[in-house]
Amino acid sequence: MKRHTWIITGVAVLAAVIIAIVIISQFTGPDDVAKKPDDQNNQEEQQKDSNEEKDKKTQFEAEHQSFQHMDYPGKVSPKFSAEQLTSPPSANWITNGGNISNGRYSQLDQINASNVADLKAEWVTSMGSGFKFKYSGESTPIVYDGVMFNITGANDVQAINAKTGEIIWEFQPELADGLDTVCCGWTSRGVAIGEGKVFVGLLDSRLVALDQKTGEVVWETEVDEWEKGHTIASAPLYYDGKVYTGIAGGEYGIRGYVAAYDAEMGRQIWRTYTIPGPGEEGHETWPQDNNSWLTGGAPVWQTPAIDPELGQIYFSTGNTSPDLDGSNREGDNLFANSVVALDADTGERNWHFQEVHHDIWDLDAANPVVLFDVEMDGEMKKGIAQAGKTGWVYILDRTSGEPLIGIDEKEVPQLDKQKTSPTQPFPKGDNFVPQEVTEEDVKNDLPEEFDGKYGKLFTPFWDEPMTVKPSPQGGGNWPPSAYNPNTEYFYVLGNDNYFSYAHYADDEENTYEQGKEYLGSVWQPVENSPMRSTVTAIDIKTNKIVWQKNWDTIAYSGVLTTKGNLVFVGHNDGRIIAYDAKTGDHLWEFKTDAGANAPPITYEIDGKQYISIFSAGNSLAGTKHGDKIYTFSLEGQYNSAEDIPKEEINTSPLAEKREEHEEHEEQDSTETQDEGNASLDQGRTIYENNCLSCHGDQGAGGHNGPSIKNSDITKDREKLIEQIKNGSGGMPPFGGTLSEDEINVLSDYIMEKLANKE
């Protein structure tokens, strides 16, 4: 398979004064900055009126906006105790993972394996946000005292009556103008609550605290500079008066870290980098003759877990940067691709376990870690599990980081040019997806014209394309896993598809430029090859598969498990599915109107158990987009989405204004360009909204899509337009979402600005 044929993520007083000045300048409160003085508001209103026709301003063009639609009906969250945060969720779902162990297990059992077939939709709420293809709905809702909190891919936050679905308030952030360093689709995986606040990480790398009753901004702090590639995609975590968040953006050559902030006013307490600097443990695993560690990646994509008894916070780290080129960063490259334990109070590193040494395959540890306690060999063990993109679950002792089930270092294929590691960790037990492309696979799955090299996990590559498994999609990707203490099974979603890698020394992707994608090589899915996935139950004591379901598409949602002997997952085609937790038997399903690409949750109000899922589609999964939360109960009325009367669907009062605002933004963006560039600028906007997450900001490939820079299809306008309209090879069709004019200007932009010209 040749490159040109490839187809198209006092001192004391002085100190106190200085701190006060910094706090005042850095953080905003609801009564000073968030709400402007009346005279300033009047002046701005007069100015707005005088320029209304010229500027076409809307209420969304101010800074962060909060809109309250009804009185807040419940209690606000307290300063949660360690006991509250570690108890298995029942009535409430108060953290992203259900509790701070991230197990996504609920002790509710009113809905169980014997009656789950009777589940029907109780209420549906349309969020009115995140429709564009660039957005992905990956959020896990939070529920406390009858109120649900959710965030869309556009970073809009809503408080919802969890019993009826009515929207209580909405928060509309003003994201940074020109934000273009989001590597893998515009998304957010959730919010956090505590001390009467809702904590939100924004894509432009800001952390915001909202008043839980009103949605008004309490404080805001800049975590880092988005222009350099720093973003926040994960849900924050509240614990012990602190808010923890990780930084994503490894594809932009950032240096990842986790930081803790004071929950009361947003002051940073500590920050710990995932890549050690000079003099720190692990720095010797990076070259000493260059500064590759400064751009070495190791981002944090997911919400951490905490063990209060041990006083440790746990998370896993992303891949090294550049993702696919190891030639300039010889060594194991700690602490990328690792499970890491820090002191929760100080950020001091306690232990680590690296899953992939010197990664060149983008096999980052993107799945959230899960804490569990289990009896093994007559002794209770404190465990931690992480599902890797490699297709293995890594099961460790969370007190020390040592394997609870054996993990052996084994020799792997070598390539001097890539400075590959001589060995890699191989966990004992079963892999939950295939880890090799076989001759039979090539014969049965790949197109007849395929003539490239192929191999297995840890096979290196250079200037000839190499097809291996698992792919950069995993194995285990971001969709959270779950652990059920009753079955003692770990439930994981895994992807199985064909990707090819190659390295070209003359490619611009090999050159670091701040704020630009830094992949260091080329990757892409094999055209016309199948995309499959697995839903797997693994015995936590043996790391062996108990049962497994096979899907004919990638798995991109997450898992919920309950005391009712149930496992719930979402499917790309819109279904939420329930399996028997012990046997894997298919027990129930309901098809929503968009890709069900977020983890389900469960909660209880007035003695009644509910199941909810945010069904809004996903840009990387290429699924149908939507904006709805579906909620089910045994007393629900609706057997299908088609049965739900339109007038019964709760809707955002701001939906129409949001649509108008987005139209004005796109129009204003085009009008700021010179007339001769207006068409190409419009094409760029359409590309960013629909194509960037898969094909990268320069067309060199993203997390799911191929490079289009050297594709033959970019040299034939008719074929390019046909591909955009109809899709193929895992690419969704855009004929139903983009107009003829939009497809034409998009194709012009791709051919003029992204395609390499011979």
From TrEMBL:
<keyword id="KW-0479">Metal-binding</keyword>
<keyword id="KW-0249">Electron transport</keyword>
<feature type="domain" description="Cytochrome c">
    <location>
        <begin position="678"/>
        <end position="754"/>
    </location>
</feature>
<keyword id="KW-0349">Heme</keyword>
<feature type="region of interest" description="Disordered">
    <location>
        <begin position="641"/>
        <end position="677"/>
    </location>
</feature>
<dbReference type="InterPro" id="IPR036909">
    <property type="entry name" value="Cyt_c-like_dom_sf"/>
</dbReference>
<dbReference type="Pfam" id="PF01011">
    <property type="entry name" value="PQQ"/>
</dbReference>
<keyword id="KW-0472">Membrane</keyword>
<dbReference type="InterPro" id="IPR011047">
    <property type="entry name" value="Quinoprotein_ADH-like_sf"/>
</dbReference>
<dbReference type="InterPro" id="IPR008168">
    <property type="entry name" value="Cyt_C_IC"/>
</dbReference>
<feature type="compositionally biased region" description="Acidic residues">
    <location>
        <begin position="662"/>
        <end position="674"/>
    </location>
</feature>
<feature type="compositionally biased region" description="Basic and acidic residues">
    <location>
        <begin position="32"/>
        <end position="66"/>
    </location>
</feature>
<keyword id="KW-0560">Oxidoreductase</keyword>
<feature type="transmembrane region" description="Helical">
    <location>
        <begin position="7"/>
        <end position="27"/>
    </location>
</feature>
<keyword id="KW-0813">Transport</keyword>
<feature type="compositionally biased region" description="Basic and acidic residues">
    <location>
        <begin position="643"/>
        <end position="661"/>
    </location>
</feature>
<dbReference type="InterPro" id="IPR009056">
    <property type="entry name" value="Cyt_c-like_dom"/>
</dbReference>
<comment type="similarity">
    <text>Belongs to the bacterial PQQ dehydrogenase family.</text>
</comment>
<keyword id="KW-0812">Transmembrane</keyword>
<dbReference type="InterPro" id="IPR018391">
    <property type="entry name" value="PQQ_b-propeller_rpt"/>
</dbReference>
<keyword id="KW-0732">Signal</keyword>
<keyword id="KW-1133">Transmembrane helix</keyword>
<dbReference type="Pfam" id="PF13442">
    <property type="entry name" value="Cytochrome_CBB3"/>
</dbReference>
<dbReference type="InterPro" id="IPR002372">
    <property type="entry name" value="PQQ_rpt_dom"/>
</dbReference>
<protein>
    <recommendedName>
        <fullName>Cytochrome c domain-containing protein</fullName>
    </recommendedName>
</protein>
<keyword id="KW-0408">Iron</keyword>
<feature type="region of interest" description="Disordered">
    <location>
        <begin position="30"/>
        <end position="73"/>
    </location>
</feature>
